[in-house]
Specification:
Elements lengths: L3 E5 L23 H12 L4 E5 L4 H12 L5 E5 L21 H6 L9 E5 L2 E2 L2 H11 L8 E8 L10 E8 L5 E12 L5 E5 L2 E4 L5 E9 L2 H17 L9 H10 L4 E5 L6 E2 L6 H13 L10
Parallel strand pairs: 1-2, 1-4, 2-3, 6-12
Antiparallel strand pairs: 4-11, 5-13, 6-11, 7-8, 7-11, 8-9, 9-10
């Protein structure tokens, strides 16, 4: 069975200022989603599940329906605030989405085998999809075998401002120990990469692996997510800013021996649009990849 790809496309980029998931950045107005799906299919993934909000469904189908129709087997899952485990209700005034782990959970009925998870607005690179597809397609893959594609922190920064990254601790067996979210990371004029730690700015190793939300899971991840989500809502449903993230589930699974998460290395170059000023850089890099023969143009011809 080919692994499934889940694409998290429900978020509206508040800093970017528009629906960047459907922004045409390639030479023929291809989106980053187009390139991710193209890379996934040629790497060996099968079905694609897009997690969206119902309010963007019309835009999404208009942009992708026709071009994917004869190339991609895809389904839609919907992430809405009222999609909660039994016994919970949305508190008054809540507008913020419940987070990436909740988004993955909304696709649970559309997944029956190993699957990968990516962000819609991140370009991960062909070889990254190949290495993860290979891991998820290994014969006899047992429950509790998780994977993360790691990228070097210094190669994931934006020249437009600070970014947040999941900084990873990895053991000698290339297994994830934990993921710690670090905020407002940027390279200073002196070349040193720093992040915000409480009231201070502290140096951080630019070579450390970080999570760019490119994960691979066996199906048991969905059940574990639901179990932990119940605990999350019991303690945090009244917190208007609380979100239930994928690393929270992975950290719990690794710490309690429920899973082993292998960190996969790749020579792929990540890039993405965090700020409006990142757009020209992304367009230039995509054009360069097309000119180098990495992708056809137009992509879905």
């Amino acid at each position: 069975m080919k692994p499934t790809l889940i694409v998290l496309a429900a978020g509206m980029g508040s800093r970017y200022g528009s629906l960047k998931q459907v922004d045409g950045l390639g030479p023929n107005a291809e989106t980053i989603i187009d390139y991710s799906v193209f890379d996934a299919l040629r790497a060996g993934f099968g079905k694609v599940v897009f997690v969206i909000r119902r309010s963007i469904e019309a835009d999404f189908r208009h942009t992708f329906g026709e071009r994917f129709g004869r190339h991609v087997d895809f389904e839609l899952a919907y992430q809405e605030l009222d999609m909660l485990p039994q016994g919970f209700a949305v508190p008054a005034g809540r507008t913020k989405p419940w987070g990436t782990a909740h988004a993955v959970w909304t696709a649970r009925h559309l997944v029956d085998g190993p699957f990968a998870v990516i962000n819609a607005d991140d370009f991960y690179g062909r070889s990254a999809f190949e290495v993860l597809a290979g891991a998820l397609s290994a014969p006899g893959l047992s429950a509790g075998r998780y994977f993360m594609v790691g990228y070097e922190l210094g190669k994931t920064l934006s020249e437009q401002g600070g970014v947040s990254r999941g900084v990873c601790s990895v053991n000698a067996r290339h297994e994830l120990v934990d993921v710690e979210e670090r905020f407002n990371i940027e390279r200073g004029p002196d070349g040193v990469v720093r992040c915000t730690d409480g009231p201070q700015r502290v140096a951080i190793n630019a070579a450390v692996p970080v999570s760019m939300n490119f994960w691979g899971f066996t199906p048991d991840f969905m059940e574990l997510t639901e179990q932990l989500m119940v605990d999350f809502f019991r303690s945090s449903i009244g917190n208007a800013k609380a979100e239930f993230y994928i690393p929270l589930v992975v950290n719990h699974a690794v710490t309690h021996g429920a899973a082993v998460c292998n960190v996969l290395s790749t020579d792929a170059r990540w890039f993405g649009v965090t700020y409006p000023g990142d757009r020209p850089m992304v367009m230039e890099r995509l054009r360069g990849l097309v000119e180098a023969g990495e992708y056809p143009s137009p992509l879905w011809a």
